[in-house]
Amino acid sequence: MALTKNKIVERVNDLGFTKKKSVDIVESLLEIIKRSLENDEDVLVSGFGKFCIKQKERRRGRNPATGKDLLLNPRKVVTFKCSGKLRERINKGR
Predict the structure, then answer these.
(1) What CATH number does the domain containing 19 carry?
(2) Which residues span the domain enclosing 69?
(3) Residues 6+ away with beta carbon under 8 Å from 43
(4) Most buried one in 25, 27, 41, 85, CB count within 10 A?
């Protein structure tokens, strides 16, 4: 099961903030991250990981439904690399 934005708001609310304040906090944080990525700025959250913008060049592809070759336009994608601390925590006990 995925952790949704509503569940994050609920967990912030559990810290003692009002429901409206919890929504404002989560929305503000996400907006800061989105704006930074839009401006080609990496977002580094110590102990969590790093969101980066990567440029994908024009390349050849194929339509899986028809098998027809096509050209994919250049585009930007967001990548995430987790920190060593998060990786250790995820793999703890394995």
Answers:
(1) 4.10.520.10
(2) 9-84
(3) 33, 36, 37, 50, 51
(4) 25
How many structural domains is the chain composed of? 1
Tokens of 23: 């929504």
Q: Which amino acid is at 52?
A: C
> Sorting pLDDT into bands at 50, 70 and 90, what band is 93?
low
Going by the DSSP 8-state scheme, the letter that residue 8 receives in this structure is H
Establish if 27 belongs to a structural domain: yes
pLDDT digits (tens, 9 = 90+) for 15-62: 999 999 999 999 999 999 999 999 999 999 999 999 999 999 999 999
In a domain, 92, yes or no: no
